[in-house]
Amino acid sequence: MERITALGPFLAAILLVANPHAVWAQTAPASGGPVSPAVIEDLVAANRILVNEGVLDAYGHVSIRHPGNPDRYLLSRSLAPVLVTADDIIEYDLESVPIDAKGRASVLERFIHGEVYKVRPDVGAVIHSHSPAVIPFSVTQVPMRPLYHQSTFLYGGVPVWDIRDVDSPDAAALLVRNGLLGKSLAAALGDRPVALLRGHGNVVVGPDVRTAVKYAVFTEVNARLQTIAIGLGGPIKYISADEAAARTQAPSDFPRAWTLWKKRALEKQ
């Protein structure tokens, strides 16, 4: 493109009209390179685990940042998560443009992923779900707060993003289907691991896909438990700051849970 525009705007316009495909070939995003089959297997497993654990339904999606290029990410084509296989994974740039879709339809809300990766270099995986138990906390004044040991990562607050606050013609559809909406959501997420989407679901991030899956599962569980606790009445003893900090430093045996979840999910293929 630089070679063409260097010839002058008039000549560049003529060349663009005459052969637009040549220009597109020069400006199409390049691949971040090959990805280990083991990495892809974990991405596929993450989709199936989250269905198995009641977080994903026919919709929702999981992505990972490309291990060889931080400006690329990997996400399934538009498909029910339980059906995702390695052949369904598409690579995107951070504008959420597919590198080579091969005729496959892209997820409408892929902009969630691209915009989060832009502003969060610490994030290696992004999950968007319609996690059912979190929805009430997105439409009421009751804040989601951690109340059991597996959800201490929620300490510090769970922001709620309302798409109606964004001036976009797409906002009324309640779907994050452009970069403007994705950018607004990423800003609301800030440095937190979880943000709720009003009347829609949540976005969960982690340094890697296994951690993001853990956060997504335990956010759903915490939401169910908190709703039960509120229904029982009386003061609730939520996780304290000291407990949250101590849990962050404590040894983790999460690989045990991941192994179980993955085995259970993949056995159902």
List keywords for this structure.
alpha+beta, 269 residues, single chain, disordered N terminus, 2 domains, seven-stranded mixed sheet, L-fuculose-1-phosphate Aldolase, 41% helix, 10 helices
Structure description:
The protein has a seven-stranded mixed sheet, with helices on both faces. Helix 2 (9-18) crosses helix 3. The protein is globular. The chain has helices spanning 2-5, 9-18, 20-27, 37-52, 111-119, 135-139, 179-189, 209-232, 241-249, 254-266; strands spanning 61-65, 72-76, 89-93, 125-129, 160-161, 194-197, 201-206. It folds into two domains: 1-30, no CATH class; 37-266, Class II aldolase/adducin N-terminal domain (L-fuculose-1-phosphate Aldolase, 3-Layer(aba) Sandwich). 41% of the residues lie in helices and 12% in strands. With 269 residues, the protein is α+β, with helices and mostly antiparallel strands. Mean pLDDT is 91; it is low at 1-18 and 20-26.
Strand ordering within the main sheet: 3-2-1-4-7-6-5
Approximately how much helix is present in the residues? 40-55%
Reading the helices and strands in chain order gives HHHHEEEHEHEHEEHHH
Number of helices: 10
| Low-confidence segments | 1-18, 20-26
Mean pLDDT: 91
Kindly state the number of beta strands. 7
Briefly note the CATH topology name of the largest domain: L-fuculose-1-phosphate Aldolase
User: Structurally, how many domains make up the residues?
Assistant: 2
CATH architectural category of the largest domain:
3-Layer(aba) Sandwich
Protein structure class: alpha+beta
CA radius of gyration is 21 Å
Strand percentage lies at: 5-15%
Name the CATH homologous superfamily of the largest domain: Class II aldolase/adducin N-terminal domain
Overall 3D geometry?
A: globular
